Amino acid sequence: MEHHVSLLAHWLTVVLGLQQHPWPGFAEGLPLSWLERYDHLFCATLAALATLAVCFAVKRKLARIPSPMQAGLESVLKGLQGLLDDSIAHHSEKYLPLVGTLTLFVFFCNLFGMVPGLNSPTSNWNVTLGCALLVFLYYNFEGLKKVGPLKYLAHFAGPVWWLAWLIFPLEVIGLFARILSHSVRLFANMSGEHVVSGLMFTALPLILPVPGMVLGLFSVLIQTFVFVLLTVIYISLAVAEEH
Amino acid sequence: MKKFLKTAALFTASIAAFAQEPAAAAAAKGFDGHYLAHIALGLAALGGGIGMGKAIASASEGIARNPQASGNIRTTMILGLAFIESLVLYVLVLAFAKA
After folding, report:
1. Does residue A43 belong to any structural domain of this protein?
2. Which residue among B12, B82, B92 sits closest to A206, beta carbon to beta carbon?
3. Global pTM?
4. At what angle do helices A68-87 and A96-112 cross, to 10 degrees?
5. Which chain A residues have any C-beta within 8 angstroms of a chain B C-beta?
C-alpha cells in the first residue's frame, strides 16, 4: 500500500521549507521530509492535543449548570463508568482514567481521517498496535498487582486442575492473539474505509464515495466503542476475583 | 441558479476525465496467484454476510417481541456486527500484505 501523505504535513513541509530526501526502504524511494515520513505521529500528536484541549476547556468552566460541552463530556464519562460497572465488581472507577483518555484519543484519531487534509493515525498499524500493547501491558499489570503473580498465572489454568495442561497453552495463546485482533480490527476498519472510498472515487468521482464515507463516519464511532469495550472486558477478565 | 447548476455540472464532468484506469494486471499464463486475495475476500464476505444476516434477523425478532428493549437490542446488534465485520477485514488486510 502506498504511503499517502496528509495534506497538512505536505503544506507544512512546503511552508517551512523542510528538506525532502528519499528514505531507504520506505515508499519506494519517494523523497519525503521527516514531517511527511512520520505524518502518522504528527496527526497522532494533533489528536492528543485535541483530547487535552477538550478536557481543559471543560475543566476551566465547571459549573453546576453545565455548558453543552461539559454535558457532553459528562455523558461520555458516565457511559464509560456504566461499562466498567457492568463488568468489574469492585473499585471500577480506578480504571476510568485510562479508559476515558483512550476513548477520546482513539475517537479523535479516527475522526481526523474524515477531515480533509489530515490522515487518521489509526489507519497505520503501528499506532493501533501501540494502543493495543498499551492496553495489554495495563491490564496485565493491574491483574498482577491485584492478585499477585502466582494467582494470576493460576487463573489461566481453567476450572479443573486435571485439564490445566490443555487449557493453559490455549489461554496464553489467546492472550497474545488478543493484541493482534484488537489492533488489526481498528487498523483494518480505518484504512479499509479509505481504500474503499478511493476505489469508489476512481469508479464514479464525487458521487459514489459519499455513501462510503457516511459509512466511514459510522464506523469511526462504532470502532471507538468496540475498542474501548474490549479494553474494559480484558481488564475485567484480568482483575476478576474468585467467587 | 441555472448558471450555477450548469457550471457545477461542467466541473463534475471534467473530473471524470482525470480518473485514471487502474494499473492493468500483468498478462498471466496459466494459474498465477494474483487473484487469490480476491477469492479469499469473497469467501470471507460470504461467511460474514451469512453471520450478519442471522444477527440482524434475531435482533429484529427481539425488537418485534419486546419493543421496549429496542435500545439495548440495537446496541447489541451493532456491537455484534462490528465483531463479525472485523473478521472479514482481517482478510482484507491480508490482501494488501506483500509476499
Report:
1. no
2. B12
3. 0.84
4. 120
5. 1, 181, 184-185, 187-189, 192, 195, 201-203, 205-206, 222-223, 225-226, 229
CB atoms A229 and B79 under 8 Å: yes
Structural domain contains residue A137 = yes
Chain-chain contact of A184 with B19 (C-beta, under 8 angstroms): no
- CA of residue A89 relative to chain centroid, distance: 25
A194-230: per-residue pLDDT in tens?
888 888 888 888 888 899 899 999 999 999 999 999 9
Residues A210, A215: Cα–Cα separation, whole Å: 9
Going by the DSSP 8-state scheme, the letter that residue A93 receives in this structure is G
- A-chain residues near B22 (CB < 8 A): 202
Q: Is residue A143 assigned to a domain?
A: yes
Q: Report ipTM for this prediction.
A: 0.72
Helices (H), chain A: 7-16, 34-37, 39-60, 68-87, 96-112, 125-147, 149-154, 164-203, 209-238
Domain housing A111: 66-238
Phi, psi for residue A63 in degrees, rounded to 5: -140, 160
In chain A, how many domains are there? 1
In the block, cell 504511503 appears at A3
d(Cα A81, Cα A138) in Å, to the nearest integer? 18
Identify whether the C-beta of residue A131 lies closer than 8 Å to the C-beta of residue A183: yes
Grid look-up 471543560 returns A58
Strand, helix or coil for residue A229:
helix
Select from B78, B84, B86 the residue whose CB has the most chain A CBs within 10 Å, as the one to mutate to test that interface. Answer: B86
Position A7 in a domain? no
The single-letter DSSP state of residue A160 is: S
**A57-113 tens-digit pLDDT:** 999 988 889 999 999 999 999 999 999 998 898 889 999 999 999 999 999 999 999
Instruction: List Cα–Cα distances, A241 to A49, A80, A219, A238, in angstroms.
Output: 37, 21, 34, 9
**All 3 cell numbers of residue A222?**
462504532
Distance from CA of A38 to the nearest CA of B (A): 21
Residue A21, classed as helix, strand or coil, is strand
